[in-house]
Amino acid sequence: MRINLKKVQRRLAELGHYQGRIDGINGPKTEAAIIAFKTSKGLRPRSFLGPITMSALFKGVRPVPARIVTEDGSIKIPTWLRLAYGYLGLKEIKGPRHNAEILTWWERLALPFRNDETPWCAGFANAMILAAGLPIVPKHRAAALGWRWNGYGTRLAGPALGAVMSMERPGRPGSGHMTFVAGRDRNGDIMGLGGNQGNMVSINPYDPWARNAQYHWPEGSAPPHVTGLKTLPLITSAGSKLTNEA
How many CB atoms lie within 10 A of CB 145? Predict the structure, then answer.
């Protein structure tokens, strides 16, 4: 990811964290300003500028914790899932206007769509993975089943936190839906964080194996050592940890 330090300095200055010259030099003042900003957002206080920091800095995306608690301890939340969490609640706009963020995803994926009516579950997933600094499937970038068709990523034996879950649509060959595995609910369903779920970014329950469900892990990232429902955190539809599980 290429960083424009002058742009970063200007933004930090707007937020009151940087008071030096806008010179594009990553000196002590710039590093101190980055650390101050990250501290204000609950991020690890270091001067590294990664995709989570950049999204929080320029888009106001709410950063989420780097780890989440499971029955066996805590596990790291993949960067692309952390980015996806920041867009919870983003909706399509009814009528002739379109959500500018969705249009930005189409542009970054080099896709021709200029509206938010085109089904965008795959666009959202691929945009988050691209924003995390990973490669994306070279074609079928807007297709929910595109990863299957291209053999993209690592096929997993079961669900894992952050895995891409793809499902077919009954009676509609070649059509499907894709979402990120964000956890599980008390009924044993996958809690999928995805786009175009009720015309918005939301967390919905899905049967782990219905609709020929498959799980894939993005290329460029080491796949998880273990998979399965028991490896997932129990969460609500808002993504918060269940506290009343018997």
Answer: 21
- For residue 200, CA distances in Å to 45, 89, 92, 196, 241 come to 32, 6, 6, 5, 21
Query: Is 240 among the domain residues?
Result: no
Same-domain pairing of 43 and 83: no
CATH of the domain at 9: 1.10.101.10
Question: Does 131 map to a domain?
Answer: yes
242 found inside a domain: no
Q: Give ∠ CA 189-191-192 in degrees, rounded to 5.
A: 125
In this structure, the answer to whether residues 47 and 74 fall within a common structural domain is no
pTM of the model: 0.87
Q: CA-CA distance, 164 to 135, in Å (whole number)?
A: 14
Contact 129, 139 (CB under 8 A): no
pLDDT digits (tens, 9 = 90+) for 43-75: 889 999 988 898 889 888 888 888 887 766 778
